[in-house]
Inverse folding.
């Protein structure tokens, strides 16, 4: 997914403005607004206080407080008006400067740049949300596909499971053959030859997880085949999965515990 192009901020020099001139035009705005706002708030509070005291005074003597507050209010209003007049004079002086139009052009370009930055971030957030949604949908599709595959493999009989797994290994390019050999309490369903190794494979189409018992049986078969020089490792393939006891027993031994979904998801099963 391509990233949105980043807007380039305007350069004052492209508008014929130096840093000092830019500060000359722009520095008064925030200070003027702040000072005028605070003085206006003070004046309003003074007027409200004077009106409140005047209305609550029982005797003329107490009206002195309201008079003082009224004076403060008048002073605040006068100061605010004087500040506004001073700023008006400064603004008009700046407007009469020869490069004021360049400043206005730069100011418009800066506003447009900030709007483009906001739009870029908004598009980036939208694309990120879309990417996450597509990832969730893809993950859900893979999960549903795996669930359907697992249900189909669990529906097979033991013999069908062996044949289908044999076809999967053949399509992957393995040198594999079905054995049909069965021994007492153990079995070898197929043999794979690859990379100068011989792997005996046992399939379990059980609908429940496998315990350590089948792993012990396969390990006994592997030891016997190793003594005869006919195997180097063993794979136990389950249609469902394995309990922790089976995994603990196989740990450190040349035995791979694989589920059919793991085999289907991997292009190649690594050898021990």
């Amino acid at each position: 997914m391509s990233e949105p192009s980043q807007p380039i901020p305007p350069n004052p020099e492209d508008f014929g403005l130096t840093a000092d001139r830019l500060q000359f035009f722009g520095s008064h705005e925030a200070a003027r607004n702040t000072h005028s706002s605070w003085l206006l708030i003070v004046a309003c509070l003074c007027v409200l206080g004077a009106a409140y005291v005047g209305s609550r005074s029982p005797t003329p003597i107490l009206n002195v407080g309201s008079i003082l507050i009224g004076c403060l209010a008048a002073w605040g209003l006068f100061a605010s008006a004087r500040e506004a007049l001073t700023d008006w004079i400064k603004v008009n002086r700046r407007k009469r400067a020869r490069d004021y139009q360049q400043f206005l052009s730069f100011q418009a370009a800066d506003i447009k740049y900030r709007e483009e930055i906001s739009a870029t971030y908004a598009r980036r957030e939208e694309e990120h949300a879309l990417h996450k949604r597509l990832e969730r949908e893809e993950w859900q599709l893979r999960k549903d596909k795996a669930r359907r595959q697992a249900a189909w493999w669990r529906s097979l009989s033991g013999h069908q499971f062996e044949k289908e797994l044999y076809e999967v290994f053949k399509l992957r390019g393995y040198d594999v053959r079905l054995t049909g050999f069965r021994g007492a309490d153990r079995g070898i369903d197929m043999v794979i030859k690859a990379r100068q190794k011989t792997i005996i494979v046992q399939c379990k189409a059980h609908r429940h997880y496998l315990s350590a018992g089948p792993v012990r049986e396969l390990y006994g078969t592997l030891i016997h085949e190793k003594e005869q020089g006919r195997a180097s490792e063993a794979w136990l393939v389950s249609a469902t999965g394995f309990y922790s006891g089976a995994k603990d027993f196989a740990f450190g031994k040349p035995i791979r515990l694989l589920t059919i979904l793991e085999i289907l998801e991997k292009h190649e099963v690594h050898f021990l």
